[in-house]
């Protein structure tokens, strides 16, 4: 029987974006060990169907369970929106997504009860952020907008390019003309465009990154289940990284996100799980 | 034993782009039946590694063989560049890619022996177009350039948007300043940006779309092997479409490309092949 306290937390994403969530967990829960999986062979998830995203998530959870994780964080908004309900019923392990924590943060942030959500096509089509927010407070109006070019712009290094400003204007013009006072960055890539989005949307809007709140939720969950690693064993926390493709490219990107040197990244044939 | 003449031709791509190749085959070889597979669950291929693209191509070829195809066309430039050599050795069926036909068309088109190639990151990194062109004529200089944002721009409907013109300028400025006189559109999505690329690059450059030459090569291959469908059985040619995800979305896009109503598209669990 594994020691639940020292067992690692599994974190997964369609690719590299979820590293921002892993980083936040490492900040808030420095004693926890993490096993990260990025599905780089099948990225992106944002344009794919619910059935496919559930199947991919199931395979990844089966893989993470072979690493004896004590809990799993779905760092990907698309998988959280489309697959969390299905996999929670299916697996006997605590699983957290980023949508519920992100929604709660927005509900707390809004004063005028008008919230904007930006995300992938699949996330927005699911309407999950609206459902969860209105489940918390039915009086809140939610405006969702898919911004499918944001991910490739970040991945292709256009973060600082003028083209990105034009694409932000193209997607967010209609949202800016509303009077929302909080906006969820409902895709793990979008925080990397935060300063340009903030510049376009203006200072009156509070921008919510679900990663922070997700790490807090994980902390509560581990403490409630008496699974938190209290670090009394004196070991340094241990991070391991797995991907389904292009390990070296992943490792280089991960090194720019994580606050330590990312060790060797291993390739997993995820379709076999 | 199947009848080789009436057996269908298999055509595959990472997604919808290869439909432009299927359309060209249907124009030049109207009597041939086609089984098309689009790997919509794992699209795009252009940012992935060679091992992964070979594994995906093997699975698709195994699937197409269950449909008793007599020959296979890899309509995807990335898979043609990275996987053709491997799968040709592995399977006992004629397999054609788009790189060799596209290269030959460019070799015939260039007068000053300077050819440009635009494609995905994986295609350009493989250097396959340069190898094949210089194998045909070692005196030709080849300039390759990856344009990874072109595919998402086309897929997100930005074909006519000003942003697309700026991205074209960003990628092709250095190529325009050379004196190439022929340019290969080395990705099946790029012909959909042809008019904007032509406007930017100017009239002196001959733009090569490998689809046309690929259909001609297929015709030769079928005739040489006495496998061409001569249509004497009086049946209409039959097209069937398979994808790994999001069949209805595929069917709608396919209807905008193919010169006839695309029938029901079937979803295949390609990872099982």
From TrEMBL, chains A, B:
Residues reported in the UniProt entry to bind substrate: 13-14, 45-46, 77-78, 188-189
E.C. number(s) listed in UniProt: 5.1.1.3
Keyword list, A-Z: Cell shape, Cell wall biogenesis/degradation, Isomerase, Peptidoglycan synthesis
Active site positions: 76 (proton donor/acceptor), 187 (proton donor/acceptor)
Family: Belongs to the aspartate/glutamate racemases family.
The name this protein goes by in its record: Glutamate racemase
PROSITE patterns according to UniProt: ASP_GLU_RACEMASE_1, ASP_GLU_RACEMASE_2
GO biological process terms held by the UniProt record: cell wall organization; peptidoglycan biosynthetic process; regulation of cell shape
Lineage of producing organism: Bacteria, Bacillati, Bacillota, Clostridia, Lachnospirales
Superkingdom field: Bacteria
InterPro entries for this protein: Asp/Glu/hydantoin_racemase, Asp/Glu_race, Asp/Glu_racemase_AS_1, Asp/Glu_racemase_AS_2, Glu_race
Native source organism of the sequence: [Ruminococcus] lactaris ATCC 29176
Function: Provides the (R)-glutamate required for cell wall biosynthesis.
């Amino acid at each position: 029987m594994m020691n639940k306290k020292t067992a690692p937390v599994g974190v997964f994403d369609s690719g590299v974006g979820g590293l921002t969530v892993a980083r936040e967990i490492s900040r808030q829960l420095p004693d926890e060990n993490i096993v990260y999986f990025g599905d780089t062979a099948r990225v992106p998830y944002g344009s794919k169907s619910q059935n496919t995203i559930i199947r991919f998530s199931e395979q990844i959870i089966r893989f993470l369970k072979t690493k004896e994780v004590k809990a799993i964080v779905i760092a990907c908004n698309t998988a959280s929106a489309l697959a969390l309900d299905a996999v929670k019923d299916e697996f006997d392990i605590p699983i957290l997504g980023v949508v519920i924590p992100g929604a709660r943060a927005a509900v707390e942030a809004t004063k005028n009860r008008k919230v904007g959500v930006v995300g992938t096509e699949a996330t927005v089509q699911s309407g999950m952020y609206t459902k969860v927010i209105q489940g918390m407070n039915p009086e809140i109006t939610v405006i969702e907008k898919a911004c499918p070019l944001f991910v490739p712009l970040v991945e292709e290094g256009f973060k600082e390019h003028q083209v990105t400003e034009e694409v932000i204007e193209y997607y967010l013009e209609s949202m800016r003309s509303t009077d929302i006072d909080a906006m969820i960055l409902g895709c793990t890539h979008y925080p990397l465009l935060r300063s340009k989005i903030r510049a376009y949307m203006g200072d009156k809007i509070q921008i919510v990154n679900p990663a922070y709140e997700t790490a807090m939720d994980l902390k509560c969950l581990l403490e409630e289940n008496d699974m938190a690693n209290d670090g009394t064993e004196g070991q340094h926390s241990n991070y391991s990284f797995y991907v389904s493709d292009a390990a070296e490219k992943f490792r280089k990107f991960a090194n720019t996100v994580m606050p330590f040197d990312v060790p060797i990244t291993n390739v997993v044939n995820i379709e076999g799980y």
